[in-house]
Amino acid sequence: MGLPDSSQDLSTEMEVDAFRRIFPLRFFERHLSESLRPDARPLGKARDTIVNPGLVSTADGSALAKIGSTTMLAAIRMEVMTPSTDSPDEGCIALEFHMPPICSPTVRPGRPADAAPVISKRLTDTILSSGMIDLKELCLVSGKAAWMGYLDIYCLNADGALFDAALLSAVAAFSNLEIPVVALNDNGRIVAISGGKDEDNASIIEKKAVNKEKRKLTLKNIPFSLTCILHKNYILADPTTEEESIMDTLVTVVLDASDQLVSLYKSGGTVLAYSSAVKSCVELARKRAKELKQILGEMDID
Amino acid sequence: MEIDRVDGRTPNQLRPLACSRNILHRPHGSASWSQGDTKVLAAVYGPKAGTKKNENAEKACFEVIWKPKTGQIGKVEKECEMILKRTIQSICVLTVNPNTTTSVIIQVVHDDGSLLPCAINAACAALVDAGIPMKHLAVAICCCLADNGYVVLDPNKLEEKKMSAFAYLVFPNTTLSVLPEGSSVAEGEPVEHGIITSVTHGVMSVDDYFLCVENGHAATASLSAFFRKNFQQSQRDSSKAG
């Protein structure tokens, strides 16, 4: 593509950083024509991903996920509640995604970020529709008591691909989750057993323990997501905030372990997605799902 | 094996469409769009001077306010607002009126399935009524996947609940061209096959998704024809009156 003469003259005299700020699109397109991005990643490669489970000791399950610089902290707290009458055997999950002012200079206290409720709803839809969690496992006493899981995800650093990192941290927190031990006491109410003291042990034998030991949830069909940017003929996987602000067409593909499409989310954008582009995005998402599966597997072993 | 739908439609048949424009006199543009029993009212105010805080001042800015029929505004409404805003931004020409804000207000009158596509169609009709410059229209359709793998278009609320998965798809409208080759082609596919917006719920295989997209293409042809006829009709009526 031909650059107009004015920027050609300026660019020979300008510093790289200044050129990046003043002509961001040209800066990126120069890199894209060499099939690279400014951070030297090839177009289809995601950033380095780290998952650390069990960081929050006061929560029943927690995980920190980092994709490049984007950092998400997820924590789950379980509480006993009465299930609704139309599903007496099922517990429920309440998910909330927070973007505190620490994560980005555009988020100020008192003005919640536009993206937060949208990502919150998308995460809830994705997790519930993928069937990762069997809500019947959260049942304690049918019709009387069931677990309610409050999952809070805090964005600590927003550097692009927020949905991917949030989903990864939620999945990791669920696999780290240990459901606390409870017992049914004389009044018919569920009581938590802390364990450890002798006097408590005696009373535990009297009370009917509803579950003997801290158990983990079985997760099937874990969803893995990848966000891609479509720009002219290029498809960039796992964008940073800078890339997202310049090129506005984002496609998020969520696949589960059995290669089914859980969600394909494209919300407007200057570039129209033709089936060839969608197929390439799905291919990239498949590769990414394999990588993420391996990372989660290593986390569990540790 | 064919699907039996409660109202006797074939799987590819849409509900009766109705669109009236210029129904409210205060907004600069307004439209009411109904597909069967789902009815949405859209109003457009703008362009007004100035953009919102973090928005680019070299482009026109859009804001969407979504009012549900009952209840308070929650995450569902915020998500619909965001999807509608980004869809409108991609179809409008943003450089004609820079540093302006155009407000689109959506009022849900009745929700009987396929609400978001209905709202997108209503918003397009209202934008045309207001005279906001656009590249093309956004034609929205809901495709759902029944358990036996059939794709059903434009479901009502009961059908949406029963189906294993559904997708809201938005395409540009089909063009009516004088040239024999038809519409312009990009990447070997006609321009109207490009997806502007896609939101899916439920798990489906990748092939099923592409099947939904294909069925969606077929439906956009009939929706585009309806838009065209409706706008031409009102054009003729207003020119007779004026």
TrEMBL record, chain A:
Its main location: cytoplasm. It is found in: Cytoplasm; Nucleus, Nucleolus. Keywords: Cytoplasm, Exosome, Nucleus, RNA-binding, rRNA processing. Gene3D superfamilies: GHMP Kinase, N-terminal domain. InterPro entries: ExoRNase_PH_dom1 (IPR001247), ExoRNase_PH_dom2 (IPR015847), ExoRNase_PH_dom2_sf (IPR036345), Exosome_comp_Rrp42_subfam (IPR050590), PNPase/RNase_PH_dom_sf (IPR027408), Ribosomal_Su5_D2-typ_SF (IPR020568), Rrp43 (IPR033196). SUPFAM superfamilies: Ribonuclease PH domain 2-like, Ribosomal protein S5 domain 2-like. Residues 46-180, 222-287 form the Exoribonuclease phosphorolytic domain. Signal peptide: none annotated. It comes from the Eukaryota. Belongs to the RNase PH family. This is Ribosomal RNA-processing protein 43. It comes from Camelina sativa. The gene is LOC104752697.
From TrEMBL, chain B:
The keyword Metal-binding does not apply. Gene3D superfamilies: GHMP Kinase, N-terminal domain. Residues 13-133 form the Exoribonuclease phosphorolytic domain. Its main location: nucleus. Pfam families: RNase_PH. One of its GO terms (molecular function) is exonuclease activity. It is found in: Nucleus. Keywords: Exonuclease, Exosome, Hydrolase, Nuclease, Nucleus, rRNA processing. SUPFAM superfamilies: Ribonuclease PH domain 2-like, Ribosomal protein S5 domain 2-like. Belongs to the RNase PH family. This is Exosome complex exonuclease RRP46 homolog. It comes from Camelina sativa (False flax).
